[in-house]
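SAMPLE LOG
Freezer: B-3
Tube label: C17
Construct: single chain, 268 aa
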Amino acid sequence: MRRLAVRRWRLRHFPACPRGPWSIPEAREKFDLFLLMGQSNMAGFGCIRADDPWQADDFDPVPGVLVLGGQAKLKDSKRRGSIRWRPASHPLHLNQRSAGFGLGLPFAVELRKETPGHSVGLIPCAWGGAPIQSLGPGSPSFQNTVRRARYAERFGVLRAVLWHQGETDALDPADSAAHADRLRGLMHAMRGELDQPDLPFLIGDLAEPTRPNIDHERVRQGLRAVAEEDRGSRFVEAAGLEKVDSVHFGRDALIEFGRRYAQAWRQR
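STRUCTURE (predicted):
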């Protein structure tokens, strides 16, 4: 009787997603959920520039990967669109004109190579240009992230947070100096809200600076330190990834970055 009630609940809350390669697994533990948090490189900056074009199949949904709608704007926790699952294709972040090809889908594709019997659920929570304080505890974005993560956990298991942020904070000496501690506070708060004290964070490196920059390097060192000191979390190297401007990665680099995030997940 309970199984029938659960099935009816799923049909009522999940009407928009087709069956087949985009169905939610009946077994909750086979639906692996990941939060995508940070700023533009996580929201997806690939294919934004004319010299970094979209490819023919970039808009095709990826089998076995779903994405959750209902993200809020940065300064307003009210959701935009329905909090529902849909087949995942680029761009994942729909309410930002600047969002394009991102690392989330390449990450999911790589992950499913080793767990083909699982589906992946991506929860877009990144925002271009966002300083860490606009994503952390007490912010509208944080409230929206927690709300949607709790909703997603009705269907699957939250496995980790993919984090890539820091370029904006590197523009100010005070913000760059405080960035690592603010990230620690965000991680602690997120784990507390979701009742997962050991929730892993996969923390991505920033792009190599075009010229020496003390504040940029301070943020990078802080990201690495937080990842290395935190049990279960991992640092994801950006060395060798090609940029399209001073801070953003292009399409090909984001594919490789997604693979590196998946490798970091396997090695946690």
